[in-house]
Amino acid sequence: MNGSAAPQTPLALETDQLGKRYGDTWALQDCSLHLPEGRIAALVGPNGAGKSTLLHLSVGLLRPDAGDVRIFGESPWANTGVLSQIGFVAQDTPLYADFSAAELITMGSKLNKTWDDVLARTRLAQLGIPPDKPVGQLSGGQRAQVALALALAKRPRLLLLDEPVASLDPLARREFLQALMGSVADTGTTVLLSSHLLADLERVCDYLIVLNRAKVRLVGAVDDLVAEHCQLVGPRHDGQPIAGVADVVRASHTDRQSTLLVRTDGTPLDPAWAAHDIPLEDLILAYLADGQTQGSHEAWGVTA
Ligand SMILES: Nc1ncnc2c1ncn2[C@@H]1O[C@H](COP(=O)(O)OP(=O)(O)OP(=O)(O)O)[C@@H](O)[C@H]1O
């Protein structure tokens, strides 16, 4: 994990040993990461990994039980002034159900110092969202579109989206992500977007955060992470160190041969192994699979 690497550019989000606990269970633990300003970042993890918890800590909806979270250098819990720079669309896009989209836009314009009314109205007009219908009567996908339009109209420096495309059909999903990219490209807005749809994320994101079982498993620029990992195929591996390899992320074996997904250390690789590039999706899946069900089998009293 390279979450503690020295930052090169100003940071939109920074966490240091951040933790949140419910009873005895840590929803997020020892979470240290940087998200440089201007990135479009994917937040990936299995159900219950801690993604929503990280986002809620980042907008001051939850208070940390350990460590710190800073947005543009400020604690969102202690310094609520920084919240005006954040747009947040929570999972299931909660909106006031009795209000129409037009009324929500009016409310947004009164509550926010920076507000782009034309952006919100143009976007919802293009999508055919009726202005006067209570949003509680819109479809889940239409509500998600309204929530994104409101978040974008705030002209945030940091936009946090918790599974924004989950309720959208494939066409709407693509349109949503294109609109998101278009809106943030000009403004330099930093985006952190959680989703289970890896192919979508691969298309739009240039930064990656992988959480698994409350811990950060992987964080960094997509190009760097892809360059640092590869698949090795070679003689059966019995666990001894391999030149050029920092970590073995995943291993599978036959009697004579091993296939390893590894993180390299930047030095030349042992020539006994054939190295192949690894697609981003396979890389993410390897980190997601890591020890996934071990604790669950213990909790259910069954063997894996
Ligand atoms: N209010 C709560 N009370 C108790 N436990 C909670 C609460 N909220 C979350 N948790 C627990 O914290 C852990 C992380 O939950 P979180 O919602 O952050 O996961 P997630 O990665 O967003 O999951 P999903 O992909 O399913 O939305 C889970 O084990 C969850 O059961």
Brief summary of the model shown:
With 304 residues, the chain is α/β, with parallel strands linked by helices. It has nine helices and 13 strands.
Give the secondary structure arrangement, pairings included.
Layout: E1 11-22, E2 25-36, E3 40-44, H1 51-58, E4 66-71, E5 86-89, H2 101-111, H3 117-126, H4 140-153, E6 158-162, H5 170-187, E7 190-194, H6 198-204, E8 207-212, E9 215-221, H7 222-228, E10 229-235, E11 245-253, E12 257-264, E13 274-276, H8 280-289, H9 294-300
Parallel strand pairs: 3-7, 3-8, 5-6, 6-7
Antiparallel strand pairs: 1-2, 1-4, 8-9, 10-12, 10-13, 11-12
Helix pairs in contact: 2-3, 3-4, 4-5
The structure holds adenosine-5'-triphosphate.
List keywords for this structure.
6-stranded mixed β-sheet; 304 residues; 13 strands; alpha/beta; binds adenosine-5'-triphosphate; 30% helix
Please provide a written account of the structure:
- By secondary structure, the chain is an alpha/beta fold.
- 30% of the residues lie in helices and 29% in strands.
- The protein is built from 9 helices and 13 strands.
- The chain has helices at residues 51-58, 101-111, 117-126, 140-153, 170-187, 198-204, 222-228, 280-289, 294-300; strands spanning 11-22, 25-36, 40-44, 66-71, 86-89, 158-162, 190-194, 207-212, 215-221, 229-235, 245-253, 257-264, 274-276.
- The strands form 3 sheets. It has a 6-stranded mixed sheet with strand order 5-6-7-3-8-9, with helices on both faces. A 4-stranded antiparallel sheet has the order 11-12-10-13. A 3-stranded antiparallel sheet has the order 2-1-4, with helices on one face.
- Strand 6, helix 5 and strand 7 (190-194) form a beta-alpha-beta unit.
- Helix 3 (117-126) runs antiparallel to helix 4.
- The model has no long low-confidence stretch (mean pLDDT 88).
- Adenosine-5'-triphosphate binds next to helix 1.
- Adenosine-5'-triphosphate is lined by residues 22, 27, 45, 47-53.
